[in-house]
Amino acid sequence: MNVPLLDLKQQHAGLRETIERAVLQVFESQQFILGPAVEACEAAVAAYCGCAHGIGMSSGTDALLACLMAEGIGPGDEVITSPYTFFAMAGAIARLGARPVFVDIDPETFNLRADRMEQAVTPRTRVLLPVHLYGRTAAMDPILETAARHRLVVIEDACQAIGAEDRGRRAGSMGDTGCLSFFPSKNLGGAGDGGMVVTNDPKRAALLRRLRNHGMEPKYYHSLIGGNFRLDALQAVVVSAKLPHLDTWTAARQANARRYDRLFHEAGLAGSPDAPLRLPGSERSGPELRHVVNQYVVRARQRDALREWLTGKGIGTEIYYPVPLHLQECFRPLGYAAGSFPESERAAAETLALPVFPELTGAQAEAVVGRIRDFYSTR
């Protein structure tokens, strides 16, 4: 049985008529840039995230960039964040001439160690930028406390975590601003690139709306330099059509993760010190945490050989992320070296993402576990 890492065709089949109708309405209106469709999407997504304002952006990357621009981040400034995540966040910091300052991750959650952020603060620190990786929020209370002590801004990278919660607070709503991505593979994906900033601060919302449109207000008058970061109406109506189904899809992802946990334990592949797999943190829901399972990531003995084996058996996998940011060639001038952040480096060498999309069937999950069991039974 072939099992893809992600199957978006099944999701689209159930929404085809709704999405096609919404897209047709945009074409009939010929209002492709901003306008009512974008405003409706912004309001709905912001409300879902527990925020008063949503500012549609052209991508999650541009959402991060615009938030940093709104804080005036530039040369000489430092932004504290994680070295184990997608490149966009550190790239946005560097594009503005600022310095990304990394803090190692917690090996259980893959999120940065909030208790170590304090040690990384210097007089040049301006922003704390936690990443909510794989659908689980970072430990926000100590991050917010550190920010308050040092009068720092908190920008949440919630691009993988829409709907995730920390003590009843939604991802993106706890800091000064939160950034979302609607990349097609995300839990709430569009039909291309798209993103949003959510916030409860009306002044930041107003500034971000200007920044995303070349700093323009009113038309053709520019009091500041922004960029072209606008969410287009076609992406907005796709996101709006999918949003009512997000909680159902999240519940299915959570159920798939629990099934994997059970199957791996029953197969003897996890749960003991000598088992070949180490599963994600067991707490995925409860009164203090809502994990939305953007990815199901295991630590695997002989990871690369296992992945090659699974590929040969038709099982889709991915490595998020094979090279931590501090070891990327473009960041060599930062002065980090191998060993600077051992947990991030260990995660990069050991982790493997398995199929966990909402439509994954029980038979498909059993096939994944079976092929992994076959691999380790011969070694």
Could you describe the 3D structure shown?
The chain is an alpha/beta fold. It folds into 2 domains: 8-244, Aspartate Aminotransferase, domain 2 (3-Layer(aba) Sandwich); 245-377, Aspartate Aminotransferase, domain 1. Helix content is 38%, strand content 13%. It is built from 12 helices and 13 strands. A 7-stranded mixed β-sheet has the order 1-9-8-5-4-2-3, sandwiched between helices. Strands 7-6-11 form a 3-stranded antiparallel β-sheet, with no helix packed on it. Helix 2 (36-48) packs parallel to helix 8, helix 3 (60-70) runs parallel beside helix 4 and helix 3 crosses helix 7 (202-211). The longest helix has 22 residues, at 8-29. The protein starts with 7 loop residues before the first helix and ends with a helix. The mean pLDDT is 96.
Tag the structure with descriptive keywords.
Aspartate Aminotransferase, domain 1, 13% strand, 12 helices, 379 residues, Aspartate Aminotransferase, domain 2, alpha/beta, single chain
Strand proportion: 5-15%
* CATH H-level superfamily title of the largest domain: Type I PLP-dependent aspartate aminotransferase-like (Major domain)
Number of separate domains: 2
Structural class category: alpha/beta
By CATH, the topology of the largest domain is Aspartate Aminotransferase, domain 2
How would you spell out the order of helices and strands? Answer: HHEHEHEHEHEEEEEHHHEEEHHEH
Numbering strands along the chain, what is their spatial order in the largest sheet? 1-9-8-5-4-2-3
Give me the Rg, rounded.
21 Å
CATH architecture of the largest domain: 3-Layer(aba) Sandwich
Mean pLDDT: 96
